Amino acid sequence: MSERRLDRNMIQIPPVSFLHRLADEASKETLPRFRTTLAVEEKFKPGYRFDPVTLADKEAERVLRELISSEYPDHAILGEEFGETGTGPWKWVIDPVDGTRPFICGIPVWGTLIGLTLEGRSVMGMMSQPFTKERFWGDQEGAWVQDSSGTRRMKTRSTTDLSRAILHTNSPDRYGDFPDVNFERLRNSVQMTRYGGECYAFAMLASGQIDLCLELALQPYDIVALIPIIERAGGVVTGLNGERPEDGGHVLASANGPLHERALKALNG
């Protein structure tokens, strides 16, 4: 980050149409490979016994990087498959297939995540699910979903009572590794807990279907694109100490501020 903060009012943020172009190019690589027989490679990821990667992941990130670099050569890029390139106040943070496990299982809760940060803060993002023909994005005007019925604004739920809240976490497997996170207390406080939704669950929180999403040990490319979607829909996203979530780690997303505070108290209690 530069020593002198940039005046955000003087900065021209790329148009949302560019996010759609990126999603279009990525879908050309992911969708034809979905529900096909794919060679699956394994990567090493601390805390995980199996961390898969496929040609869909690699080729989708490749085309995303090519298009970003051609249009915005001065922007940095951080991606799951090929790391970080470039420097400067603008950084694209991308995950070509967030949810590779459901991707190889043929379950359409994966998505392509495309986020943009300015001086480390997420300013716009999109989650594209090409199989269901849905796109969710957050821009300077709000949070939006585009599907078969058209484009409409999203708004989070107004639930403030934990006992009436729906909680989602992708898997309970790793909570034993983090005894400081009181997942059981939160799980026992809510109305219902569901699992396995990957990035799609965060989109459903922004859409007003889920109240809380809790994830552990996220990387920036897992969350940056989702932050504007949730925040512009009225939600809150932070680390478990209330810090900004762009760097990943333990992340809680909530439908609104009061619910967020109650959930954090349960987790940290």
Topology:
Layout: H1 16-30, E1 41-43, E2 51-53, H2 55-71, E3 76-79, E4 83-85, E5 90-98, H3 100-105, E6 111-118, E7 121-129, E8 134-138, E9 143-147, E10 150-153, E11 166-169, H4 183-189, E12 192-195, H5 198-206, E13 212-218, H6 220-223, H7 226-232, E14 236-239, E15 249-254, H8 257-268
Helix pairs in contact: 1-2, 5-7
Structural summary, described in words:
- The structure is a single chain.
- The chain has 269 residues and is of the alpha+beta class.
- The chain folds into two domains: 8-153, 2-Layer Sandwich (Fructose-1,6-Bisphosphatase, Chain A, domain 1); 162-268, D-Maltodextrin-Binding Protein, domain 2.
- Helices cover 29% and strands 29% of the residues.
- It has eight helices and 15 strands.
- The protein has helices at 16-30, 55-71, 100-105, 183-189, 198-206, 220-223, 226-232, 257-268, and strands at residues 41-43, 51-53, 76-79, 83-85, 90-98, 111-118, 121-129, 134-138, 143-147, 150-153, 166-169, 192-195, 212-218, 236-239, 249-254.
- The protein has an eight-stranded mixed β-sheet with strand order 4-3-5-6-7-8-9-10, with helices on both faces. Strands 12-11-13-15-14 form a five-stranded mixed β-sheet, sandwiched between helices. The protein has a two-stranded antiparallel sheet with strand order 1-2.
- β3 and β4 form a beta hairpin.
- α1 packs antiparallel against α2 (55-71) and α5 runs parallel beside α7 (226-232).
- It starts with 15 loop residues before the first helix and ends with a helix.
- 42% of the residues are buried.
